[in-house]
Automatic annotation (TrEMBL):
Keywords: Dioxygenase, Oxidoreductase. Residues 98-195 form the Fe2OG dioxygenase domain. GO terms for molecular function: dioxygenase activity. It comes from the Bacteria. This is Alpha-ketoglutarate-dependent dioxygenase AlkB. PROSITE patterns: FE2OG_OXY.
Length: 201
């Protein structure tokens, strides 16, 4: 396994790390996408004021808690008291894609997690990437090839960082945030380009 860990304060850190390669840009990571003060401000407002929901989901013959809080906003109805329009504008400067939905995850502590998965392709516009801004405490993400689980990379997602994953990668690779022994609260803000509603039916 490769481990990629870069801190914003590391003078020798590259501006961008290529974590996975493919014809659509693969997975690219910018550790210092926004400055520390901006990341702190965004975390404070979102943690306090977003519409966080605790979901339960059927799994086999049981109903289980989703082990993190979720909040979702379509980009054409962003609440004015949240910094999401500003975040979207900055993400679009770096990644010019037709993002239409913002999904957020709140990992309250090390027990919160997301299992290894590829994002659902039928809910994403073909060819457009997913962009993910991290806020709050660092958390480790694992990315692995579906065809060879030994082909994997661990990246410590720092507050103020941006991770961009290609559409193609959602079928060739899985990503997840494993549980951690100790972790302070973290938020990820995920920008996706959704297909028009009609094509979902
Ligand atoms: O929180 C993260 O960094 C990953 C979230 C994720 O994979 C998702 O929302 O699909
Ligand atoms: Fe995901």
């Amino acid at each position: 396994m490769r481990t990629a860990s870069v801190s914003r304060d590391d003078l020798f850190a590259p501006a961008m790390l290529q974590l996975v390669d493919d014809a659509q840009g693969g997975a690219r990571y910018w550790p210092g996408f926004v400055d520390a003060d901006t990341a702190r401000r965004w975390f404070e407002v979102l943690s306090a004021q977003a519409d966080w929901r605790h979901l339960r989901r059927p799994m086999y013959d049981r109903v289980v808690d989703v082990p993190r809080l979720l909040a979702n906003y379509p980009v054409d109805a962003l609440p004015a008291d949240l910094p999401l329009a500003d975040m979207l504008a900055r993400v679009r400067e770096r990644v010019p894609a037709p993002f239409s939905s913002i999904g957020m995850n709140f990992y309250r502590d090390g027990q919160d997690s997301v299992a290894m998965h590829g994002d659902k392709l039928h809910t994403l516009r073909d060819g457009h990437p997913i962009a993910l801004v991290s806020l709050g405490a660092p958390r480790r993400m694992l990315i692995r090839a579906v065809a060879d689980h030994a082909d994997r990379v661990a990246i410590d997602l720092m507050p103020g960082s941006l991770l961009v994953m290609s559409h193609a990668m959602q079928s060739t690779h899985e990503h997840g945030i494993p549980k951690a022994r100790h972790a302070a609260p973290r938020i990820s803000v995920v920008f996706r380009a959704r297909p028009p509603v009609a094509s979902l039916l």
